[in-house]
């Protein structure tokens, strides 16, 4: 669905010959509202597919980060989110049709020495089991994969490999 008004997206179903899996697709104008709308869409689809807990939380964070990057850095007029779930894996793909623009070096936050932005892809990698960037002449696709729990099992916590943690300070909500 492509729209500027952002009505609720309608999920697309996979081909009947596909292996058992669920699919959903949402295309919106690349506006500042798109990350919020797509995050809600992804959460609704994950719940429809019976996913809960850490999986839904990680999906929400990852979709927000990837869609925000597409909106802010690609120059694309639209952004597309494709979700699929099956065989123990949840996949989120964010695609734009723009040309990636390098962002200026992020400014540091007031008095804390940390940049205000620039941590998004590190967060994405920390919450997924696999992250792939595909840059082509027709745009960029970011793929993020998550392991999903078996039926009736509790969602596993997000993977922590590759993430360096530091003590959280009260004034820094991102750590």
Automatic annotation (TrEMBL):
GO MF term set: ATP binding
Sequence ranges of Pro residues compositional bias: 1-11
Region (Disordered): 1-22, 148-175
Species annotation: Streptomyces physcomitrii
Database matches in Gene3D superfamilies: Histidine kinase-like ATPase, C-terminal domain
Residue ranges of domain Histidine kinase/HSP90-like ATPase in the record: 29-141
UniProt KW keywords: ATP-binding, Kinase, Nucleotide-binding, Serine/threonine-protein kinase, Transferase
Protein name (record): ATP-binding protein
Organism domain of life: Bacteria
